[in-house]
Write a structure and sequence with these properties.
heterodimer; A: about 180 residues; mainly alpha; 7 helices; 2 strands; B: about 350 residues; alpha+beta; eight-stranded antiparallel beta sheet; two-stranded antiparallel ribbon; 12 helices; about 50% helix; globular; binds zinc ion
Chain lengths: ~180, ~350
């Protein structure tokens, strides 16, 4: 059983990952040290350990830390097959849908890193159908077209060509409308 | 197929990026300010799970959208797999790539403005990483420009986003706003005063981190450090910016105080160090990068104290960045052994110091 790299006393149960511009730092920590590292040290300890160099409130986080909730086991993302256990080992999600699959465990996990799991930024809403949907559809039609041509199904190929042409026009229209 | 040197890279080496121009606020102390935004496309696997073919698809979609939006002036687009190893490393020194972008290069790329102010890495750890880098201390302007590009892209592309977490990123440390602000700072005063450890601890309490020029675990090089915000959840975009400014203003004050104190106590030593640094840089026959960076730092500090009048911040910025190992090789136009590099570095520095005054 691995010990916490910080206190070297308690068992390491948390993978503490920090990425700063491509440099990854991974620490195996216990819950207590992970909490300390992600939130800053408690006030009394702070004074003893470090000279106060500047006068800034320690944290502007809007949510308080709560006691860890028990983790659900055997969670897996149906899209990329990432498991919760493997995610904890690597500290990287496999795809956007992992966030849904790991939803319950993630709240606590993100709280340990950030002190909260709640986004407070501006709302995000796309204005129209994402252009990559169209591009993606086009790519799959092009694959079908190739098959149709290879199997000499020329009637189908002609239909596919028409649809690809339509999509091309749509892409051009979408993007030129966006540059205002 | 032999990977020949890319022509747009030859143009790069000739012209330093705008962010080295020594303009903006406090340019001697704050070399540059960067705002980086991480985004992903909802439908595609993140890059720990992506195949080269999936990455290529993401890359062509993002490039296509960038071309059509026309947000970036005279853009340059580079596919990582088409570059030589040396050119990829050159991009890292140039802040136009990271290790994650060049390691396993298939399907990854970078799209950037000719003046290197804006760069968009495609398929780094996240599908999209928008960076705006400006000279000196310019957080407001860099922030505004990066968010503007993000907004335009987000109207056309389907970014991975989910309540209550916000923008979904490959690494949970970026989940939420996915925004990171950072500065490259020259803080010899803090180092001479032995306050680095204390500064690092103070920064972690306010959710910021400090790294060496080349990241965690690297040596102290030229007393230059990268200080970044790590806030991304529980706060708004504006709060992150305000918070970052509060932190960096405090570090600037700390460094200023340290410098005043040092000058009072150690005036003779500082003057001696400045003159020696210049003498060595003007006369050395072999210079390794770390040593050169130390002397450049002494010159920067001498400049701040008014002991050096002949050289500008711009010149000192260029000296430092063009002395990096890959830059020296690109300047000469061929791969060199470490000893050959030290020789060419010494001659490059000597020539530059004698030809450029201010
Ligand atoms: Zn511990
Ligand atoms: Zn997944």
């Amino acid at each position: 059983m691995a010990l916490c790299e910080e206190c070297k006393v308690r068992e390491a149960t948390v993978l503490y990952v920090e990425i700063v511009d491509g440099t990854k730092v991974v620490k195996h920590l216990c819950e207590v040290c992970a909490e300390k590292l992600s939130l800053g040290l408690p006030k009394e300890e702070k004074k003893k350990k470090t000279d106060k160099l500047f006068n800034i409130k320690p944290s502007s986080i809007k949510e308080m830390f709560s006691s860890p909730v028990e983790e659900k086991k055997n969670l897996q993302c149906q899209h990329c097959h990432m498991t919760w256990e493997y995610f904890k080992k690597t500290g990287k999600f496999g795809c956007a849908y992992c966030y849904e699959a790991f939803y319950e465990n993630l709240k606590g996990y993100l709280k340990r890193i950030h002190g909260t799991y709640v986004y407070h930024g501006r709302p995000y809403r796309r204005k129209s159908v994402p252009v990559e949907n169209i591009i993606e559809e086009k790519l799959s039609l092009e694959r079908e077209l190739k098959e149709a041509v290879e199997s000499e199904d020329f009637e189908r190929a002609a239909k596919l060509r028409d649809r690809i042409k339509e999509l091309n026009e749509k892409i051009v229209k979408q993007e030129s409308g966006k540059s205002d | 197929m032999k990977k020949s040197s890319n022509r747009s890279l030859e143009n790069l080496i000739e012209k330093p990026p705008f962010w080295l121009s020594g303009t903006g606020k406090f340019p001697e102390m704050v070399l540059s300010t960067r705002v980086r935004i991480a985004r992903n496309l909802r439908k595609f696997p993140f890059n720990v799970k992506s195949s080269p073919a999936e990455r290529e698809e993401v890359r062509s979609i993002v490039k296509d959208v960038l071309d059509n939006l026309g947000l970036i002036e005279s853009p340059v687009f580079l596919k990582m797999e088409e570059l030589s190893e040396l050119d990829r490393k050159f991009l890292i020194e140039r802040h136009l790539a990271t290790f994650d972008l060049i390691n396993d290069p298939e399907g990854r790329g970078v799209y950037f403005s000719a003046d290197e102010t804006v760069n968009i890495m495609i398929n780094e750890e996240d599908h999209i990483r928008i960076s705006v880098i400006l000279p000196g201390y310019s957080p407001d302007e860099a922030f505004k420009r990066a968010l503007m590009i993000e907004e335009k892209l987000g109207q056309v592309l389907d970014f991975a986003f989910m309540e209550p977490f916000g923008f979904l990123t490959s690494c949970p440390t970026n989940t939420g706003l996915g925004i990171r602000l950072s500065v490259l700072m020259h803080i010899p005063g803090v180092i001479i005063n032995k306050q680095l450890k204390s500064l690092a601890e103070n920064l972690s309490m306010v959710r910021a981190t400090i790294r060496g020029l080349y990241g965690e675990g690297s040596d102290i090089i030229g007393n230059i450090f990268q200080i970044s915000s790590t806030l991304t959840l529980g706060v708004s975009e504006e709060e992150v910016l305000e918070r970052f400014k509060e932190v960096i203003n405090s570090v600037i004050e700390l460094e200023k105080e340290a410098r005043e104190e040092i000058f009072k106590k150690l005036k003779d030593i500082i003057e001696d160090r400045t003159s020696r640094a210049l003498a060595i840089l003007q006369n050395a026959k072999l210079l390794n990068f770390k040593e050169a960076a130390e002397h450049f730092s002494a010159l920067r500090l001498g400049l701040a104290y008014g002991l050096i009048l002949d050289y500008s911040v711009k010149t000192l910025n260029e000296l430092l960045f063009y002395s990096q190992p890959v830059h020296i090789q690109k300047l000469i136009g061929k791969e060199l052994s470490p000893t050959e590099r030290d020789k060419f570095r010494a001659s490059y520095v000597k020539t530059k110091l004698s030809s450029v005054k201010n």
